[in-house]
Design goal:
The complex is a heterodimer of chains A (167) and B (173). Chain A has 167 residues and is of the alpha+beta class. Chain A is built from 7 helices and 5 strands; from the N terminus they run E-E-H-E-H-H-H-H-H-E-E-H. In chain A, helix 1 links the parallel strand 2 and strand 3. In chain A, helix 2 packs antiparallel against helix 3, helix 2 packs across helix 5 and helix 4 runs antiparallel to helix 5. The chains are: A alpha+beta (167), B alpha/beta (173).
């Protein structure tokens, strides 16, 4: 798991889960609480990383949302913004994002000016390209220890795949 | 002719898809009710041909939707992307409009599946094509081909690797 990733859990954890996701994608929205539950159950045994894969033709708000999370990361609150975006998937206009930034106590003006200027676009693009080259075939795409997981994305199925134990 | 050998080829599952090193059969198919696209129009460029079973079915939508998002990646290789299914031109027009696709979908509609048969990727029992990918070099020769299980979106990893490889080869000349 490269240093550049946003991760939760110890970087040397025995189980590694990477998600390529889009903040406006409803299936990613469904996967969001699943990942939370996996993290709750596996604790420090799991390292989770999130990479951006915005499908901009289908989801007009996905690009700005991804850049907003990266802009929040620049102020030290990537995961807080990531969570707020997934918990408010129906409200991803720029004014909503500005509101989220204020609610998190971030410098909302700075965040929005970075988003409008595309300051974090290269980072989002880099994630996207890495996904395309690693076999992402839609969102969300999960990788367990570097291998694309094509199974069902329920808690029990993912847990079984991560731990290697049958459901 | 140097051909790719590192990635999965099409023969493993008993498929008869044209393998790497074979000249790509030319075709002329409608992209809209009044426009015809010929493979030979793209001689001198890299071409990605993606056969897929049907417009509107969820996996296909994902696959074509994904490639639509990746057009800029393909364009970096100066590669043209062509989608082909047995759906008619009007169906493709509606599908493209609905999914905001920015590349041509070709109608292998009459005689049905003729081009898929030419490429060895027609599924006679289903009346559709396989989910098959071909990367064609500037000389009109298949450089890489792959048939995915029909229910699995193959993504773009294989296509991008093949394009990368071809770009390297052209650069050496």
């Amino acid at each position: 798991m490269p240093e550049r990733d946003h991760i939760q859990g110890p970087i040397d954890a025995p189980m590694r889960l990477v998600e390529y996701g889009d903040y406006e994608c409803p299936y990613c929205g469904q996967a969001y609480p699943v990942v939370k539950e996996l993290q709750k159950r596996l604790g420090k045994r799991l390292c989770f990383a999130f990479r951006n894969f915005p499908l901009v033709n289908s989801h007009p708000h996905a690009q700005h949302a991804a850049e907003a999370a990266e802009a929040a990361a620049a102020q030290g609150q990537f995961w807080e913004m990531h969570d707020l975006l997934y918990e408010n998937q129906d409200s991803l206009e720029d004014e909503d994002i500005a509101r989220f930034a204020s609610a998190l106590g971030l410098d909302s003006q700075r965040l929005m000016s970075e988003v409008r200027a595309g300051a974090h676009m290269p980072r989002v693009r880099e994630d996207f390209r890495s996904g395309a080259r690693n076999g992402v075939n839609g969102t969300p795409s999960f990788f367990i220890d570097g291998v694309r997981y094509d199974g069902m994305t329920g808690v029990e199925e993912l847990l079984a795949a991560l731990t290697g134990e049958p459901v | 002719m140097k051909t790719s050998s590192t990635r999965p080829q099409v023969h493993g599952n008993g498929s008869t898809a044209f393998p790497a090193g074979t000249p790509a059969p030319d075709f002329a198919l409608k992209s809209t009710p009044d426009q015809i696209v010929r493979l030979s129009d793209f001689r001198g460029r890299l071409v990605v041909v993606a056969f897929y079973p049907a417009d509107w079915s969820p996996v296909c939508g994902d696959q074509m939707g994904l490639y639509n998002e990746l057009l800029s990646e393909f364009q970096e290789f100066n590669a043209e992307l062509l989608g082909i299914s047995v759906d008619g031109a009007w169906c493709h027009t509606a599908f493209c409009h609905d999914r905001k696709l920015h590349f041509p979908l070709l109608a292998d509609f009459e005689p049905k599946g003729e081009v898929a048969r030419l490429y060895g990727v027609y599924r006679a029992g289903d009346g559709t094509s396989e989910r098959a990918l071909f990367v064609i070099n500037p000389h009109g020769v298949i450089h890489w081909s792959y048939v995915s299980p029909v229910g699995v979106n193959p993504g773009a990893e294989g296509i991008l690797s093949a394009l990368q490889e071809l770009q390297g080869q052209e650069g050496e000349k």
